[in-house]
Design goal:
The structure is a homodimer. Chain A is an alpha/beta fold. Chain A has 10 helices and 7 strands. Chain A is globular, with a radius of gyration of 18 Å.
Chain lengths: 260, 260
Amino acid sequence: MRIPPQHPRYHSLLQREKIVEAFKKGIVVPQGLIAHGRGECFDYLLGERTTPPAMKAIEAAAAALLLAKHPVISVNGNTAALVAKEVVELAKAAGAKIEVNLFYRTREREEAIAQLLRESGAEEVLGVGEDASATIPELFSERRRVSPRGIYIADVVLVPLEDGDRTEALRKMGKLVIAVDLNPLSRTARSANITIVDNVVRAMPLLLKKVNEFKTRSRIELEETLRRYDNEEVLREALMEIWRNIERHVREGLLIEFPK
Amino acid sequence: MRIPPQHPRYHSLLQREKIVEAFKKGIVVPQGLIAHGRGECFDYLLGERTTPPAMKAIEAAAAALLLAKHPVISVNGNTAALVAKEVVELAKAAGAKIEVNLFYRTREREEAIAQLLRESGAEEVLGVGEDASATIPELFSERRRVSPRGIYIADVVLVPLEDGDRTEALRKMGKLVIAVDLNPLSRTARSANITIVDNVVRAMPLLLKKVNEFKTRSRIELEETLRRYDNEEVLREALMEIWRNIERHVREGLLIEFPK
C-alpha cells in the first residue's frame, strides 16, 4: 500500500506498514502488532512529538550510556522492525553491544532479527542460539535467556519496547535500565531508572545525536547530568503533556465540521 | 490459551484471543490487530466501563437508527470478530441493513465475514462481490466500493471501528454517521455526528437494549432526543473521564521502587 505523504496520519501509517511488513517476515509476532497499537494510542495523546520530559530522559540516557563500562542495547522484534539502523549507529557511537532478547523466543526469529541487524551494519549480534546461555533470575522459560557477554554482565541496558516483568528483573539484578516506552503508566516505565516516554522512531536518532554531543563532556559533567535526573518528575511531566494535549483539543474544538 | 475468569485482565485478554482467533481465520488483518491494541489502551484509560457520556451517545444513536429511512450497519473484520451476533440482533431490531465494508478488501475476506454474519443469524449481507458496485466520492481504490442498496442510499450509517477517511467521506455525502470509537480524539470520533466512546463489546448490547426500549416512543420524542444531543460535549466528557483516571494514577504514585 502506498500512503500519500500529505495524509494527516502519514508517519503513523508508515510505521504501521513497517511493523506489518516485519510481521510477514517473521520478525514481529501477532502480540507485537497489538503492542504497537497500544503505543500508537499513547503517541496520539502525546501529540506525536518528542516532549520536553522525553528530551530530559534522552540526555540522562546519553550520559548513562557514555559512563557505562558494559552498555548493551536489547533488541526485540518491534525494535528491529522500526529502528534497526539507528540501533546499530547508537551502539557504535556509545561503544555498546547489541543483543537480541525476545519475549516469544524461537531460533528462527532470533536469526531473522540478527540478520536484519547485520544488514543494517551490525558487526556483532549477541543473544542468538548458543550465545544466550546465561539466565536472568526470577524469569521463566525462554524469556530469561541472555548472553554472558551481553546483558548478563552489563551495567547499563537500553531496552526499547520491553515488558514489565523483564524490566523489573533487570532492576533486581542491579542494572541501570533505560526504557523507551510511550505509556508513562506501564510497569516498564515505572520500573526503569530512566524512561524515555517517546516513540522509538523519534527517540533513537535524538539519543544518537546526544551521545555524539556529550562525548566532549567530562565524566564529572556526565555524572552531574545523571545525578540531577528525576524519573518520577519526568513521568509526571509526561502525563501533564497528555493532559495539556487533551486540553488543547478541547479548547480548539473537537468537532470536524461538515456543510449541512 | 485458557484464561482464568478471576484474572484481573480477563475480559480484555478474552477479546484479544477472539481477535487473534479471527486473524487466523482470515477475518481480521494484521492492521486490525494493531487497531485492537490501540483500542485496548484507550479502554484501559477509560476504566474499561461504559461511561455516562457513552450512555448519552448510545441513546442518541438509538433515536437516530429508529428515525432513519435507510439505516445501515457497516461491518469490518474486527467488528465481525467481536460482535457478529449483536450486529445481527441490532439490525433486526432497528430494521437496518448489514453491509460488509472493508479497508483491506479481498473477495475471500468479504466472504468469510459474510459467512460469519450468516452463521450469526443474518438473512441478508450486502457489500459482497458484485453487490459492492457503487462508489463513495473522494476515496480511492477498493475502499470506496459500497452497495447501491446499502451505504450508498443510507441516511444513517452505524460504523463501529471505522477509519477517519471513510467517516469523513460519509459525512460529505450528507449521511448521519454513528461511530463506535474508543479514541475520543480520532478523526472518526471527531467527524461522526454521534460518537459512542466505548468498547464495541459493551456498546452494542446497550444500543440494542435502547433501540428496543425507544420503540414505544413517538417520532417527536425521538427527534427531541436527537436535537438535544451534543457530540462535542460528549467527546469533552469522555476526555475528562480519561483525565480523572490518569490523575488517580499520579496521586497513587508512579515509581516502582527497587533496593539500591
